[in-house]
Amino acid sequence: ALREAVGLVPQDAVLFNATLRYNVQYGRPEADDEEVRKAIAAASLGPLIESLPEGLDTMVGERGLKLSGGEKQRVAVARAILRRPRLLLCDEATAALDTATEAAVSASLKRAGRGRTVLLVAHRLSTVMHCDRIYVLERGRVVESGTHDELVHKPGGTYRAMWALQAEGLSDLEAEQEEKMLRALKEGHFADGDGADAATAAAETSTS
């Protein structure tokens, strides 16, 4: 079935007032402990769980209030991976995160994309620059497509203009963090393997 083939990582991960184990295993309740551990590793949740006295049995609070934004997103990534989807859909998965946290979650998504197709929907262009193919939408129509390098060097291009606009809006510290993150993602320092097959669409003044 189509629903069984798709895993979703939304912008605002919905967590239940239950344990970390329950929230991860919600993606596929029948999954065994080994499968849960693999999903946790792929989502880079291991260090967090090891730091908690109760580990996977730690309660996360109402809507996951005991976790940071990045931790909640990684739980959502683990949950999606546990479904063993052929298509991983990430809908603004890093939009509400700061640059440093975005780098960590993007690394988790890149690792999670191994062996499957990943569709990223994002306003923040740094999230999609490592994708195999980027589609730029303007007023609901695809106006450009290509790799990040192709689009950012295209004279008069929509993507190029958006990239420049976003770069201008960064503080010096944010720009330095952004540059480090992009370099690490491009060089594959955040994830083992060769990353994900991914398609990314851009809408209006953003990729989407």
UniProtKB/TrEMBL annotation:
Segments traversing the membrane: none
Domain (ABC transporter): residue spans on this chain: 1-164
Pfam families noted in UniProt: ABC_tran
Entry GO terms, CC: mitochondrial inner membrane
Any single GO BP term: intracellular iron ion homeostasis
Native species: Prasinoderma singulare
Official protein name in the record: ABC transporter domain-containing protein
InterPro entries reported for this sequence: ABC_transporter-like_ATP-bd, ABC_transporter-like_CS, P-loop_NTPase, Type_1_exporter
GO molecular function: ATP binding; ATP hydrolysis activity; ATPase-coupled transmembrane transporter activity
